[in-house]
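Input structure tokens:
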């Protein structure tokens, strides 16, 4: 759907939700936990800024006739969840915005390898989201099909590789991962990219590690921890488990060993 920004519902009043409200237009409504679904605006995007584990509840609380307006901004692979919810074509956003504290202006995901920014959206309300960010001087690309899938894989590899590598070293910052543990990070990024490409049927453009490292430098203060396993590293771990169940070698031995060292999974465990 083409066009500029329009009045929207924003689910969640945290850092991202509040930032979207500040960037928004008259008529926006912020929907917090326990609030009744508003009658107005009666159309337009419904930006979901909650944690992943709250997504099923958000979908259930949204009237069926409005669910195609949901816009998902979460990290992680959401494809299987969206299929299960009957929303395979839902608008999704790969968000590269850093909001350090509630109420502070967002920092755009502009890097030395991607000076035009990294945030990417697809789907019905992608153009409206791009217009909202543009109103605040922020960047957003609109992509569809394999081009979006490739961007999604890179974002997924970024958060999985940086968080695991950082956790292995006691939870150091993203910047320390990029500067002090680059060789370990590169090996894990290469492994995750190859497995992700095979699983999704795409081929990333050359220079993936350099692009991901550059984003790491741009958010160097971020802490690292392995969280939301089902949505993040769990997606890659399932690839390992399927291969082993079929009698094939683990395509992700570095990733599996790291998860075992962190105690996230046990040897032979399934997800």
């Amino acid at each position: 759907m083409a066009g500029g920004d329009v009045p929207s519902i924003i689910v969640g009043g945290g850092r991202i939700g509040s930032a979207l409200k500040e960037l928004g237009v008259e008529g926006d409504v912020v929907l917090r936990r326990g609030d009744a679904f508003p009658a107005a605006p009666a159309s337009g995007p419904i930006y979901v800024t909650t944690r992943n584990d709250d997504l099923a509840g958000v979908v259930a609380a949204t009237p069926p006739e409005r669910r195609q307006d949901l816009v998902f901004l979460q990290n992680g692979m959401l494809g299987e969840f969206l299929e299960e919810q009957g929303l395979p074509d839902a608008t999704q956003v790969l968000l590269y915005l850093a909001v350090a504290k509630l109420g502070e202006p967002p920092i755009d995901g502009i890097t030395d390898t991607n000076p035009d920014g990294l945030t990417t959206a697809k789907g019905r309300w992608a153009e409206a989201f791009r217009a909202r960010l543009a109103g605040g001087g922020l960047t957003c690309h609109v992509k569809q099909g394999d081009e979006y899938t490739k961007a999604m894989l890179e974002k997924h590899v970024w958060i999985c590789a940086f968080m695991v590598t950082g956790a292995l070293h006691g939870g150091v910052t993203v910047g320390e991962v990029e500067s002090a543990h680059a060789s370990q990070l590169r090996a894990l990024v290469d492994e995750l990219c190859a497995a992700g490409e095979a699983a999704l049927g795409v081929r990333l453009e050359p220079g993936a590690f350099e692009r991901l490292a550059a984003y790491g430098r741009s958010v160097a203060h971020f802490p690292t921890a392995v969280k939301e396993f089902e949505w993040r590293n769990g997606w890659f771990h399932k690839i390992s488990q399927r291969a082993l169940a079929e009698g094939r070698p683990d395509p992700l031995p570095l990733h599996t060993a790291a998860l075992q060292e962190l105690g996230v999974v046990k040897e032979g465990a399934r997800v």
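The chain has a mean pLDDT of 95. The radius of gyration is 19 Å.
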